Amino acid sequence: MLKKKVEEILVNQIEKEAYSSNLYLAMAVWADTNGYEGTANWLYAQAEEERLHMMKFIKYVNERGGKAIIPSVEQPPSEYKDIKAVFAKVYEHEQYVTELISGIVGVCLEEKDFTTHNWIQWFVTEQIEEEASVAAINDKLRLLGDHNLYMFDRDIMGMRGQVPASSE
Ligand code: FEO
After folding, report:
1. CA of 96 to the centre of ligand 1 (A)
2. Superkingdom of the source (predicted)?
3. Is residue 17 lining ligand 1, measured as CB closer than 6 Å?
4. Inter-axis angle of helices 149-157 and 37-63, to 10 degrees?
């Protein structure tokens, strides 16, 4: 059975993951409608991943005797200056999510919920990977300067597989 404080912070994270998914979806739409097919592909796949993260929180809360709340989600920005601005924002957002996950780890320790502490480690590792993959993209963009964005877009196209039709 989840303690109240643990349940609250996990339910809070459902909204954060839902927002992350919609944020990347909005960025994907921006890329898709500005001719960056590869970038859109990457972002659509990222949005699906965030939805899966949200589902993990929902299912875990229910499984442990809590009740997941499906949140309303704030509308993410739909306009971006350029690709660099998009990926700078992705990196900033992932760093924010890493802080949130660390906050959950902290509550688990305070409440001595070692089961949830163990479960959340998957997200701790996931955040290391997410930050690293976005940092690598930002490095590529820095090396390219303002040129060759077409090449960048082709390049990133191969970084993810096909976007799954559904995350179910
Ligand atoms: Fe759900 Fe990108 O962290």
Report:
1. 9
2. Bacteria
3. yes
4. 40
